[in-house]
Design a protein that fits this description.
Layout lengths: L1 H22 L2 H24 L7 H13 L12 H4 L7 H35 L3 H28 L5 H21 L2 H25 L4 H19 L19 H5 L9 H11 L1 H19 L4 H19 L19 H31 L2 H31 L1
Protein name: ABC transporter permease
Keywords: Membrane, Transmembrane, Transmembrane helix
Pfam families: EcsB (PF05975)
């Protein structure tokens, strides 16, 4: 079973590398450098004006440390066929799952170390902490992570997903208590609390797996959900065959859909709008990227960085909406319409223009309000509108032509 884990981990690593080549392309790396540089510059300027004794420093640090803890997740790398082929080796699966816990713990620990290092200047100024005291919070996070992963492993032998009450208690309430005591009382309080909590979770996991059978279906479903989150991130940059959207009724959007005349000369405006509203893939990507752009622009004071981020998010949204053009290609009835491909493209461009212009206007308003500058709002709206025009006039026709070829 240990050889199986090694093979699965290697295959998973190669698959992630394949998609990372599309994520870390030249354009995105340059954009990421500007983003990190801009945020780092703003963080540095903030620390110069920050001083100890600020009342909100404690809640921010406690909440930040608790949020970092939520990034840990048990990666079992199980497949749909495993319950059939590995069932005779079920008792040996615990060694496989322990390896997966160590792998997940190592990866999560790296993320947590980086997160605490970023926060360390803030904590050093706000609470006058030494390097050893800040390091104790890193150790606390690492210990809590191992306990959280043991909790996830334990539920596979309970044959049920733990209720939200237990998850809230273990992953949120208890860590908030430990970090609050660590900030305001002593770092030993957080360290001892984390050791006790994790020890109890590990102890319970060791008792469960010897007396209970593995919940294969639950384990496979949880792994599928975890991988789907990763694939959805990669789907922001390239097409991922593993991502399959679901369709929802969404009756509350009927009023918006009713504003579109389905008897117009271009019925594709209605069809594409309906697909966008009912599909979780397209609507989810659009709203997530728009909200992320709004949140970032709320904290960006540099006008040039704000314009760059707006242009980047508008491009990403437009790029992710392109597969919507082929949404009805496999529907035989759409090929019976006496409508040309030019009309179809015009209907698609009309919908995308409305969506992108709404995003541009929203980002411009947020950027202007956050910096109290009407000039910035006008400039960002103008540059964003030019980008939308360029995408619809030059970029989209080339991409649509490739999709039809």
């Amino acid at each position: 079973m240990l050889n199986l884990w090694t093979q699965r981990k290697r295959a998973h690593f190669l698959e992630m590398l394949k998609y990372l080549r599309y994520v870390l392309n030249d354009h995105f790396v340059i954009a990421l450098m500007f983003l990190v540089g801009g945020l780092g510059f703003g963080y540095s300027n903030f620390l110069k004006t920050f001083h100890a004794g600020t009342w909100w420093a404690g809640p921010v640090a406690i909440f930040y440390l608790t949020i970092i803890l939520q990034f840990c997740s048990l990666a079992t790398l199980l497949k749909r066929a495993d319950p059939v082929f590995l069932l005779p080796r079920e008792h040996d699966m615990h060694g496989y799952l322990k390896k997966s816990r160590i792998h997940s713990w190592t990866f999560s620990s790296v993320v947590e170390v980086v997160g605490v290092v970023i926060l360390s200047p803030f904590m050093a100024i706000a609470f006058q902490l030494s390097v050893i005291q800040i390091g104790s919070f890193i150790i606390t996070l690492i210990i809590l992570t191992f306990g959280s992963l043991s909790l996830e492993l334990n539920q596979l032998y309970q044959n049920r997903v733990f209720g939200w009450q237990q998850s809230l208690l273990t992953n949120w309430i208890f860590p908030l208590i430990w970090f609050t005591g660590g900030i305001y009382l002593s770092f030993w309080f957080a360290l001892v609390g984390a050791i006790i909590q994790s020890f109890l979770e590990i102890r319970r996991e060791q008792q469960q797996w010897q007396t209970r059978s593995l919940a294969w279906k639950l384990a496979v479903n949880l792994e599928d959900q975890r991988m789907l989150k990763i694939y959805r991130f990669f789907n922001l940059f390239t097409d991922v065959p593993n991502v399959h959207g679901t369709v929802h009724r969404r009756k509350y959007l009927d009023r918006i859909l009713g504003m579109i005349d389905r008897r117009s000369q271009n019925p594709y405006v209605y069809l594409f709008s309906r697909a966008l509203m009912r599909s979780t893939v397209y609507s989810g990507l659009y709203f997530r990227l728009t909200i992320l752009g709004v949140v970032l622009l709320m904290f960006i004071s540099n006008i040039y960085l704000a314009i760059f981020l707006q242009l980047l998010f508008v491009y990403l949204i437009g790029f992710q909406l392109l597969p919507l053009f082929a949404n009805y290609n496999e529907n035989v009835f759409t090929h019976l319409y006496p409508i040309s491909a030019v009309t179809k493209a015009a209907g698609f461009n009309q919908l995308v223009m409305i969506l992108l212009e709404f995003t541009v206007s929203l980002l411009a308003i947020v950027g202007g309000l956050s910096n109290m500058s009407i000039l910035q709002a006008v400039i960002t709206w103008f540059t964003g509108s030019i980008e939308v025009w360029g995408l619809l006039k030059f970029y989209f026709p080339i991409r649509i032509k490739k999709m039809n070829s």
